[in-house]
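Predict structure. Chain length: 318.
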Amino acid sequence: MAPNEPRPTKAQRREAARAKAKALREAEERRARRSMITRRSLIGAGALTAVGTTGWLVYDRRRDAAEAAARASSLPPAGGGIVEEKAAKKGVPSPVLADGSWTYGKASALDSIIQGAPVLDVYFDYSCHFCADFETLHAQEISALLDAGRITLALHPSDILTQDWTDMVMNAMGLVLDEAPDTALDFHTAALGFFSEVFASKDGSRLTVENLVTAATSAGVPADITGRFDKTYKNNTYGPWTVLAQESFQSRGLEGTPTVFLGGEKIDLSTLSSPTALTDLVDGLDGAGAAGGSAGAGEPTSPAAGTGEDPASAAPTE
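Prediction complete.
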């Protein structure tokens, strides 16, 4: 795509993601139609073949719906545990779990958990200014808790606000998680930090790939990766990840961002106004000897609904 051509709309990118997700099924449908024509030519049973193919298509659609329902039902409920299986599908970064989340353990090690430590689950949208404020206030504290091995961090993206900026960051983050994973957490913090600045400035025109590249560079993402952000975004390469994450968000009955859980308990966001509030809560869990929602025995925690806002339209407003 030439630089002066308009970027695809969000609807177009979402349609492209759905097309990727359904590619195998559509290929099978084409194979079935070819088989139908062949059988009609060979045995002159066109009517019967058409009925058979229609039945197969109905079965295939029902199977897809059943598989989606099964995926949703297999997810732990909000506050019920970290998903243990990887998503393992095209368009989803390799470290990402089956519900669209990814984790950090001791010393911010990607794709790990800390046995016996409470899980800090954070549901967020990259276009949510409350999420950006939460990250800006608590990023250093969370890093210290990870360094000390006192929590496991589970990040759960969503697309509840349906903003282009979310698509832009999710595609960039997908590339970073796959090809520069050691910089992913710093990039996550930088992207939300930049959005917080944009929201405060009320200048939505700053939400560009170029400025996202600048934020990523400040987080240590290599130039050969940031140089591919624009193409990855235009192609919506990681669109299936965004779809997966939002489906998981909805299937758990969540309604807003940020949603924060610690050790299986939903946190009242009004209690997190100080930069040491999370540490105080972890201290309380340690003192109580809490076991629920810990990373032990593969059963850490998931989040539940919080409050959200749509701040990422053309110009953020308070």
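Summary: Residues 114 and 266 are 20 Å apart (CA to CA).
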